[in-house]
Known about the structure:
The complex is a heterodimer. Chain A is α/β, with parallel strands linked by helices. Helices cover 32% and strands 16% of the residues of chain A. Chain A has helices at residues 5-11, 39-48, 78-94, 109-116, 147-156, 181-192, 207-210, 214-222, 238-245, 253-263, 314-327, 347-350, 353-363, 381-389, 392-398, 448-457; strands at 14-16, 24-27, 30-33, 58-61, 97-99, 124-127, 141-144, 158-161, 165-172, 200-205, 231-233, 276-281, 288-290, 298-300, 342-345, 373-376, 402-403, 424-427, 442-445. By secondary structure, chain B is an alpha/beta fold. Classes of the chains: A alpha/beta, B alpha/beta. The complex binds iron/sulfur cluster.
Amino acid sequence: MGRTLAEKVWxxxxxxxxxxxxxxxxxxxxxxxxxxxxxxxxxGLREAGRPVRRPDLTIATEDHNIPTVxxxxxxxxxxxxxxxxxxxxxxxxxxxxxxxxxxLDQGIVHVVGPQTGLTQPGMTVVCGxxxxxxxxxxxxxAFGIGTSEVEHVLATQTLPLAPFKTMxxxxxxxxxxxxxxxxxxxxxxxxxxxxxxxxxxxxYRGEAIRALSMESRLTVCNMSIxxxxxxxxxxxxxxxxxxxxDKPHAPKGAEWDxxxxxWSTLKTDDDAVFDAEVxxxxxxxxxxxxxxxxxxxxxxxxxxVPDPEQMADAGERAAAERSxxxxxxxxxxxxxxxxxxxxxxxxxxxxxxxxLRIAADVLKGRRVADGVRLxxxxxxxxxxxxxVEEGLDQVFLDAGGEWRGAGCSMxxxxxxxxxTVGERAASTxxxxxxxxxxxGGRTHLVSVPVAxxxxxxxxxxSPADLAPAxxxxxx
Amino acid sequence: MALEPFTTHTGVGVPLRRxxxxxxxxxxxxxxxxxxxxxxxxxxxxAWRNDESFVLNQEPFRAGSVLVAGPDFGTxxxxxxxxxxxxxxxxxxxxSSRFADIFRGNSGKQGLLAGQMAQDxxxxxxxxxxxxxxxxxxxxxxxRTATCGTSVFSFQVDDYTRWRLMEGLDDIGLTLRxxxxxxxxxxxxxxxxxxxxxxxx
Lengths: 475, 201
Ligand code: SF4
């Protein structure tokens, strides 16, 4: 019987098959590290007198806890500063490459991997961060791990792993104008639920997925974890190869040919069988927004806040009631009428250059609504520099937005960029949990065009809702 | 091999007459911000230790190393810090009539023995330890018994965990027993697989 993409990558990394009941031992090609989940792992190594087995397959960057303005000043929060300092010390002591604040390659760990060309098809990629699934867009088997597993990978470059199941998510047809890959994944999560992917590696396939750019594919795989999945993958194709080719760590010459030859075999065989299959029609999709406090609580932008009373499942009803209370929303309110205080464009979900181009396209010649704060945060320093080169920063500033340094920023309430109690945000990030963007903050997950349009109108909107932009005067 | 092999252990038994001791009670969240893997002893049962009558605040128990707790020990969040805190304080063994699965798993990996015994035996042991504060308990992992004075209790621990504890193997130690296989795998890896060093840009 044929093998699925995920199984092929797994098979290619088995160091040792586990005896009955024992997990297989898998080799890890790339280990990404950041300041929050690594300190104890290094401490464990030190305690046991163990070295990092493969510093040359390991890379560290500072992202979660760092500020995105005044980066030349010491980090104000003591715990954050200690974590960042500790990472720097550990990297120096164990010989691990690190991209610190101020470095050209600093940025969100899941933006840095792809942009350096270190993420490639058919690899196993791990990081002490659940959104490691992002890298699956290259056809890599990529997943988040806990701190003791971080230590395990540092010491052995392997991980004992329990087998997974496979789920095909086929997105047929063509995406309508104004919808993006973010809408695909929000719709997938709303369909299968936040636990629907539990125990599975998802493979996104179908015409609409093939049509996506590499960066849009990263957005889809990024949020696999929000469906509860272990990982999400997309088979590599010509677009994938083209994206990698000019990157610093791409194979060169004959090695490139050898790599592409293998990468081209990384697709699910026709006769392979998935453990589960879900089909979605892209043509039916609209811009999707969340109303609740988990990413599965989403509806099309044209819909209204759902009524818990109408929910058949008692657990779902109770959860919806609690979400609405936290979000300060009444059932039946049209989503388009929900006014926001802040718009956040950034994160490992939507903080890449294509995202910023889309945002700038919407914001060009327009102004952010009165009383609304727009924060644009590039996912990495290189994304930031590219945006500046293209003049996108000026578009954001002219529109009245803030243009900040690279990092996780308002994606999570661990650094100075936070929502305050009751503050409502439209956010291109991936989690709308209670307090995720700051204590008491209220998050609506949205796509980049919806975020930008919302900044202009002040209520959840899509670009189609906007009046024509001011045209530059003719000369 | 990063852990001390466990064969037998003798130390002061501490009766903890509580059930449903969750990991938040074992170590509150405020202690989780640290960057080290050791030094969590001050966070152990932090809320309870403010109370002078708490068992660990009483003299002979202070030096305890065998904790005897009520059912459902270690429930709640999966934080590994709970095991670290118990170990850092000096505990080598926890006996209870029921453990949360994740806590039991974490214990085995970190070299803390979580032995499950009948609740009736836990009650008996509590009485013995309370009647004679500072009484020693000898835990024999090979025989799976805990002895206090003349009373011998048996406890359960699965064969695999017992073997690991007796060998002193943590997860990493276990994997490194297959270092040959890792070496062999590495020798076959294609040369074009990316390396982070040297830095290219
Ligand atoms: S941007 Fe957000 S989701 Fe991504 S790594 Fe940072 S904190 Fe995690």
